Amino acid sequence: MTEAHTIDAAERLLMATTLRGLAEELDGTELNQALDEFGFADLLAEAPRDAVSALFTALGRTGSMSTSLQDVLLQPLAEHLPMAAMECNVVLPGPGISAAAYVGAGERELLAVRGLVIGARPAPTYLAPVAISGELAWIGLQESSGISIRRVGGLDPALAMTEITGVDVAADVIVAGKWAVAAWDAVATAGRLALGYQILGAVGQMIDLAVDHARSRVQFGRPIGSFQAVRNRLADAHVAREGAAAALASAWDADDAVLAGLLAKSLAGRAARIAATQCQQVLAGIGFTAEHPFHRFLARALVLDSVLGSAAELPAVIGARVISAGSVPRLVDL
Amino acid sequence: MEVREFRAGVQAWIDEVGESLVPAIEDQSVEAQLNHQRRVQRLLFDAGWMRWGWPTRIGGLGGSPILRAVLGEELTSRALVHTTSWSMHEVLGPAVAEFGRPDLVEDIFPLLLRGEEFWCQGFSEPDAGSDLGSMRTTARPRSDGWVINGEKLWTSWAHHATRCVVLARTGGPGSRGISAFLVDMDTPGVTASPLETMAGVDEFCSTSFVDVEVPAERLLDELDAGWRVAQFILSCERGPIFWQRGAWLAHHLGLLLDPADEEASSALGEAYQLLWAFRATSKSTQDRIPAGDLPGPEASVDKIMIAAADQAVFDLARDLLRGDMETDDSARSQAWRREWAYSRAATIYGGTSEIQKDIVASRLLGLPRSA
C-alpha cells in the first residue's frame, strides 16, 4: 500500500475540509454525486491514504453515508476484474462469523451464502469471497443466482446496510486460486482501514459531545468536568482514540500490511467500546435520550466494529499470527 | 549519519562483538547490572555508536537524537543492557547538556557517555510525590555557593552515582521558587541509602542532604528556573527512553511466544496490540524530537499507553509461565519475577497515570481544572 502520489500538507488540509463540508451538507445519493464531481475515485487511485483518511473520518464525524466503501473495496480487485464488474458491490462476511471466515461455503453448485453490503450501489450485482470445497474464490452474485436481499434495520438503521443470503446458490466463479487469497487480504485490509477511520470519526464525535457536556453541565456548583472521576473517563476515551489513530496512520507504511490492518481495526473497535461506555456515562440522562445525537454515533461505531472482525474477535487472530510468525513484528521503524 | 545506516552498523557491531555483550543471568544484583553496562558503554563509546545523536561540543559525534533511540532499541530488544539503567544518561544527559555551564559539561559529559559516571535524579521527596511543587528541600546562599538540606526519595542508582540533579527551594512556595543543581555525590553531607522494594532490586534510594555545600557554578539554568529544568527532564523521559522500553517489552513478549498455545492467542494479541498502539503513538513523538520539539502534554498519552502495555506484557507472562513466577526459584524465573514486580510501578513512576490523565483532561480536552 504505497502512495502513488504525494500531496502536500496544504492540499491535504483543503481536501479534508472539502470532504468534511460535503459530508456535513449532503447524504446518500446527493453525497455520491458530489463525490463523483469532486473526483474522489481519481484521488483514491492517486493518494489512497489521504483520500481514505479524509473521507471516512468525515463520514464518521457527520454520520452521513455514501457508496465510497465500495470504491475502496473494489480498488484492489480492479486489475483482475472485467470493467463491468467494477460497478458491483462487495459482500463482506457478516458479524457473528469468525474473522477468518468468508461470505459463503460449500460445493460449487450448492453454496450457502450470508454476508453484508455497506453503502450499496444501486445495481443489485455483487462480488463475494466464498470457500468452494475449502478453496477461496471470488464469485459473482445477482438476483437470478437465487439470493435474497434484505435492507438491514438493526442497531443503526441509517447505516444503509444490506444483507445478502442464499442457500444452494450456483457459483459463478470469477477468480480462484492463489490470487483470490491475495485479493481477499488486500480487500479486507482496505476495508479495515476505511472502517477504522469511520469508527474513529464517530468516536471523535462521542468524545466532543461528552466534553462539551462536561464543560457546561453544572452540579454541586461546579462544571462536572472538574471532577476527577469524570475527567479520568474522558481521558481514557481520548487515549484509546489516539492509540487507534496512530495505528491507522502507521498501517500504511507497515511491512506486514495485513497484520497492521488487523491491529488498526481492532484498536479502533476497542476505542469505540471505551468511548461508548465512558462518554455515555458522562452524558448521563441527556445522552440516553433519542433527541440528543449521541446515540447515533454510538450505534454507528459499534455496528462498524462488528464488521471485518470486532475488537472482541481480532486479538485472537492477531495473537495467532504473531505466535505462528515466531517473533514479535516491529512493523515500522524510526 | 542516516538512521538506516546507523541501525545496520549497530546491528553488525553487535553480531561481531557477539556473546560477550550478553549479561550473565546468574548474578542479577544492581552491581552486576551496572558493571555490565559500564563495559558495554565503554565498548560502544570506543566504537563510536555511543556518541552519535549527541552534540560534538560535549563529546558526541552529532546527528539526530533519533540515533540514540535506535541504539537503545537494538540493545534492549536483545536484552544486552537492562532498560532501566540504560535510561540514566537519557533522563539527565540532555538537561545537563542544555542547562549546565558549558565548561563543566564539556569536562563531564564524555565520562557519562563512556560509562565512567552514573548520574541520578533528586526530585521526589517523602511528602512530595505527585505534588512535586510542594517539595521542602532547601538551597540557601552561602559565600560563593549554596547549602542544600533535605531528603530525596526514589533516587534511582544514587548509591552508585557520581552526580545528582537536585531540585531545591531557593524562593517562595510552589513551583516557581525552585532551582536545579548538579551535586557531586561525594560531597560531605550526602548519604544514599538503598530501599528494598517488592521487585527485590536495590535500585531506588532515599538520599539525604545535610549542609551540603554546592559551588555557584553548579546551578543549572537560572535561579528559580528549576521547574523548567524538571519539565525538560520529564519530557526527555518520553523520548528515546520510551522507545527502548517499548523494545524491551517486545523482547519479553517474544519470549512468551514459545509457551503460548492457541488458547493464549487472544491474551497475547491484546498485549501485542497495546504495545503496538504505544509504538505507533511514540513514533510520532520520536519523529518530532529532532526538529527541537520537546514532548508536551501529548506525551502524557504516550506515558499512559506504555504503562498499560508494560503491565499487560508482564501479566501475560505470569499467566503463561504457569506457576514459575509464584513458585520457581531458577535464575530465569527470578528475572521474570523481578520484571513483573517492576512493571507494577509503571503506572506510578515518572508521573502517575492519574496525573497524566489530569493533564490530558485539562490540556488536550480543555476540561475545567479539577477542584
Give a brief rundown of this model.
The complex is a heterodimer of chains A (about 325) and B (about 375). Chain A has helices at about 10-25, 30-40, 40-45, 50-60, 70-75, 180-215, 230-250, 255-290, 295-305, 315-325; strands spanning about 90, 90-95, 105, 110-120, 125-130, 135-140, 150, 160-170, 170-175, 220, 220-225.
What does this protein look like?
The complex is a heterodimer of chains A (334) and B (371). With 334 residues, chain A is an alpha+beta fold. Chain A folds into three domains: 9-66; 84-176, Butyryl-CoA Dehydrogenase, subunit A, domain 2 (Beta Barrel), CATH 2.40.110.10; 181-325, Butyryl-CoA Dehydrogenase, subunit A, domain 3. Helix content of chain A is 53%, strand content 17%. Chain A is built from ten helices and eleven strands. In chain A, strands 1, 2, 3, 4, 5, 6, 7, 8 and 9 form a nine-stranded mixed beta sheet that branches. In chain A, strand 10 (218-219) and strand 11 form a beta hairpin. In chain A, helix 6 runs antiparallel to helix 7 (228-251) and helix 8 (257-288) runs antiparallel to helix 10. Chain A is globular, with a radius of gyration of 20 Å. The model of chain A has no long low-confidence stretch (mean pLDDT 93). The mean pLDDT of chain B is 95. Chain B is built from 13 helices and eight strands. The radius of gyration of chain B is 20 Å and the shape is globular. Chain B has 371 residues and is α+β, with helices and mostly antiparallel strands. In chain B, the strands form two sheets. A four-stranded mixed beta sheet of chain B has the order 1-4-5-8. A four-stranded antiparallel beta sheet of chain B has the order 2-3-7-6, with no helix packed on it. Chain B has three domains: 3-87; 120-224, Butyryl-CoA Dehydrogenase, subunit A, domain 2 (Beta Barrel); 237-364, Butyryl-CoA Dehydrogenase, subunit A, domain 3. In chain B, a hairpin with an 8-residue loop joins strand 4 (163-169) and strand 5. Chains A and B meet through helix 6, strand 11, helix 7, helix 8 and helix 10 of A and helix 3, helix 8, helix 9, helix 10 and helix 13 of B.
